[in-house]
Amino acid sequence: MNKLEKEDIQGLLIRGYGNLPSAKYLLYTGTQREQTLEFIRQLTPKITPASEKPANEAFHLAFTYEGLAFLELPAAVLDSFCREFKEGMAELHRQFVLGDTGENAPQHWDWGNESLHFILLVYGKDENQLNETLADIRQLSDATGITELHALPTGLLQGQKEHFGFRDDISRPIIRELLPDLPQEPDTTFPAGEFIMGYDNLYNELAPSPTVPPQMDPKNKLPEHRDNNNLKDLGKNGSYLVFRQMKQNVPTFWEYMKANSSDPSAAIGLASKMVGRWPDGSPLTLCPFQPDPSLSDANDFGYWEDDKAGLKCPIGSHIRRTNPRDHLVTEKSRKDSQEMAAKHRMLRKGRPYGPPLSPELDPEMIMQSPDDGQERGLHFICLVTDIRRQFEFVQNNWVNFHKFGGLENDADPVIGNHYQNERRKTDSFSIPEYPVRKVHPNLPNFTHIKGGAYFFFPGIRALQYLTDYE
Ligand code: HEM
């Protein structure tokens, strides 16, 4: 097993910074190349490596393809990036792959559809620390003529919840190389190459990575490509960062649950069927009739053994679509399902934004709270080495596919865009029940895309190369 080069890996790949609850995501575009390079050069020493556990602040930097082209990377280097990254999230064909059509189409986004060069993710131990850090960064951006397009706020919510009132961030893939002494369970641990370039992935191949011809690295900053010593590995220790700003319509979500249930407790039951976990995080598969607080961190479960039909956790629920674990109807065995599902995992690193509708995030209280007209949602972020096989596959084949798992007109009830295709709505949610299933019709969209982009999240040596390759 290869050792991770933690001092060269940006720390977000192995940490979530729960100890740094304040954060802002700054979206930039450069005006002049030289000045932009200077800005990045000055920021590079501040970038937090995975070898450090920061106590006060952390910084991470990632680039769009347009940003790398603006920095005038040689064509041979630009060409070596994967197609999805080069085309970008807002590209016309991609709108259909991701379901970003109708009201979710990029022309309605607040950002991501205009010139965007890079993103800086800044984390602080508290708001004061964050504001001080941001003031320093703004001085630097003003001095170098960089335009801050947006400063996206974030705010962690009580009890590790997201805005609908459900506990989030429970199921996380574990990188094998980080825990070499643990038993290597194939369905819960993953080779680093699934998330970090320059290491073997699940196919026992080096994760695909952008490269540089050696003559374009005269200062010899980059490591050799392991499988091709005629190339330098620009991707080594980097990743792709997928960002989607998803507005959550919390009053609409709970209005629907109330309107389709006999009482508040049944409304919470219906919402939990849609998520696949109870609000406290306990998985429906392990406790189908009521939440069990002792299971709120539980992640060691599957569907094959005793929930193939989805009587406990509906096949179309959010967690069962985004990670079908050991049961995919397209696969013949439990093992095949596990292997298939494993190839489509992501490291989720997003944070909520906006004020909670009810501070405790208790669904009963949220249901009683009047619409305050405020915007809130999730800055969904995930890190992957293969945008198409991991993020896009899940979004296209599992989240939005109306026939997922043998269903007919359903998409992910929580995040699906149900009105993306004029010919076929996907606005049903089916709950398998014996003897006949229950179908909830006319689901509104509970989330809306407000912006998004694909970024290259380089290793630290690669970051130095980007600003100094001539
Ligand atoms: C506003 C948007 C979203 C909300 C409110 C949301 C909410 C949740 C919640 C409550 C969980 C359960 C906690 C856990 O298992 O860790 C979860 C899990 C998950 N979500 Fe989302 N999510 C959103 C967007 C997305 C998107 C865009 C994707 C990817 C396309 C995604 C992929 C996943 C995955 C992979 C899991 C873990 C499933 C498992 O391993 O069992 N989510 N989400």
UniProtKB/TrEMBL annotation:
InterPro entries: Dimeric_a/b-barrel (IPR011008), Dyp_peroxidase (IPR006314). The lineage of its organism: Bacteria, Pseudomonadati, Bacteroidota, Cytophagia, Cytophagales. It comes from Cyclobacterium jeungdonense. PROSITE patterns: DYP_PEROXIDASE (PS51404). This is Peroxidase. Keywords: Iron, Metal-binding, Oxidoreductase, Peroxidase. Transmembrane segments: none annotated. GO terms for molecular function: peroxidase activity. Its cofactor is heme b. It comes from the Bacteria.
